[in-house]
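Support case: iron/sulfur cluster complex. Customer-provided input:
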Amino acid sequence: MTIPVEALMRKKETFDRGEDRRALLDPRAELLKLEEQGEIVVQKIQGDVVTAPTKFGLEKRIQKGHLWHHKSCGQCGHIPGYSTSIFWIMRKLGYDYHDPKDQTSCTAWNYYASATSNSAAQAAVAVRNFAAAAETGYFPLIHCGTSYGHYKEVREELIHHPQLRAEVRDVMSKLGKELVFPEELVHYSEWLYAMRDEIAALQIRDVSAVKVTVHPACHYYKLVEGDAIFDPDVYGGQRTAVVTGLAQRLGADVRDYSTWFDCCGFGFRHILVQRDFTRSFATQRKIEVMKEEADPDVVLTHDTGCVTTLDKSQFAAKAHDRNVGVAVMSEAQFAALAMGAHPYKVCQLHWHSADYRPMLEKMGIDWELAWAEFQEALKKLDSGEKRFLDWDDVDE
Amino acid sequence: MTETATSHYKRPDVAGYAEVPYAEKERLFSEVKEDMRFSDYLYGCYECGICVAACPSARFYDFSPRRIAQAAAREDVELIYQQMQEDIWECSQCFSCLRCPRGNNPGGIITIMREVAINNGLASAKQAMEGYSRIIYKIMSTGTQVSPDMLQADAFPDWGPETADVSANLDLWRRALPSETMHTTNTGWDVADKTLVELYLIWFHTGALDMIEEIDQGLHAILQEVMEECLEDEGIEL
Ligand code: SF4
Ligand code: SF4
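Agent response - structure generated as follows:
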């Protein structure tokens, strides 16, 4: 049997254009309506907020302090200086936060890699985390781009599918929880963007000599694209403003390159079990293009998978004499360095693979001295004087 | 069925996966269509190829999100079956194809097709899970997907000598982190026991755990035992 003509004819009648996803109703208003109907509980934004424009004109409200850090397993596990830099900046700016143990991964990395889950399980994992946040009174701030993108999808599904809401409510009741969702979904890079003036006010290192390229993370701005920050002052509003807006505010030499829209090649399953694809894509479509067109000292990005992919893919490519060799880090680490953070004790750059030392030198950082200081700090642990380093130790 | 009618699909002897009756292919596609997300992900297809231009996997594999959207729109169950046995695991799930001017989500259709492939224990799903099961074990049993102790030189030889440095200094470097929740080596952060119990209940009650049984019975048995023991300790009966 080939393509059934009846199927095509049937399609003609049944394909409904439906509502354009670009003109979606404001999801926050939809959540509040569902709350009024007694279906869900919405955790509200409190205290000081900054507003930022999103792609199709809705204003996003970003709570400044009292935040619940929804951590990223890839950041905490493999790029720990990513997470510590976010915490460190928040502490320096004087905002209180909660770093919960009552948090699981969003599990979306696994879902996009293996599909060994389903809509109800994914929504329940999200809602369990949000209910845990609401119990503390702190408002969620999501570290991972994939968690953020996935949770935006979950929000769409919960809004549009009553049967999913019913299923999730049922599972939550077995956990003694309600179906809780926060009023806004906020990614940490949006918080950094919103705080860029306050961050710049505490900047102590000149980064004007540092050439920067930006890789915008797919799951941040391609999934549910209407809820990503676009600012007319950055790229004329044609590209997401987070990361770039902060780097420009810090005075870095931000440069453009032609394959900015391309993904990094992470692939979720590919980075773990099919890395030939990941390495090839990251090298040929991102790093080499940037090198040729912009010659950056560092690639800044805002998601777990992108930092991992762009950083780790360069070693093997170098062995093949490819045109690679650019430092890779999150804009959180970059901003922390600009604010005076220690490259090893706070930003944990020894967990990175691509050489970041030339970039540190351009910021005026003596990395050899910094490494010696880190080794000195480790002696406190080796000698048994302390079991763990703490926030005071890392600013010594 | 004539040779001409099937000539643009792979012949069973070269396909590398089992041929099944047409009715079975129809049944698999009906599972895809029944997913509540399907009607939000497909509105027909202009066949314009914009999604292909944006797609990283299309650059490196014989893979095309346009073909996925077309096959689904035409309800071409033969091609859809072939895609479920071959193409879907090549997608990077980056969702660059959301650029589609028709409002389609080819990557999302693939997510659904993958779920159906897993639920039905298709050969492609089993093959895709080879070498991946330890990750499923990690995420479902500990609540974090990747852990610091996975960074070992023999697991990531292409990531450079820094991986070996991390592995050699793992415990010390984790204790040097100023964040109180991040001193762990076998999970991304310290997940509370109560939280894990709640996660296990989610896997049980949503059927996510059952999905593993179709593709890896050994892994399923281990996960089930770990979770049941934990829930029993908490006095929770399923
Ligand atoms: S989600 Fe899959 S099909 Fe879509 S652009 Fe990415 S790799 Fe291609
Ligand atoms: S971009 Fe959309 S309409 Fe164009 S080929 Fe791809 S799925 Fe079809």
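Chain A touches chain B through 110 residues (CB under 8 Å).

Case will auto-close in a few days if no follow-up is received.
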